[in-house]
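User: Before I run my own analysis I want an independent prediction to cross-check against. Here's the chain; please return only the structure tokens and, at the end, one sentence I can use as a sanity check.
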Amino acid sequence: TVTEGIGLIDRSGRILRINPSAGHFSQGRIKPGMTLLQGCRLLKARLENGATVSNNKHLPTYQVFLNGETVRDQVMQMTTPISKKLRYVSVTAAPLFDLQKKVRAAVLHFTDITQQKEAEKQVADFTLLLSEKIASQTQDTHYFIYGITHDLKAPIVTIQGFLKQVSSKYGALL
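Assistant: Structure tokens:
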């Protein structure tokens, strides 16, 4: 009944079980018996950097089966089969050990973080826009200050000229 997707994957990469949320996310296309890699291909899974998930080494379960370590919050991009919506998913894979402390299966937990990623993109876009605006304002301010200093320089030079003339004519008296 949890809202996150949960699956049980055996050492060969086969999906043993998935909860209803995982089935709903894949719009009913991913089922027990399939391999996790087949499911990723069906969802056009990509790593966060955009690289295609093309083999088991890209899957979070790979490290689980390789050295028994939990892989936390691996971000992946997936496209839902029917609606073709791009989704961002945070995936965690944890080992299930038998009595001899050997990894026999992996529990896969994934959470749809699309709204979070969209908000992060909006913040990044706004930050970029704000930086550009600040840079533009800074340049405008620079031009303004340059203009003022240039405009004030001319009268000062004129006053200095008069002071030199006064000093040369009346310097002894002053």
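Sanity check: The chain is about 45% helix and 25% strand.
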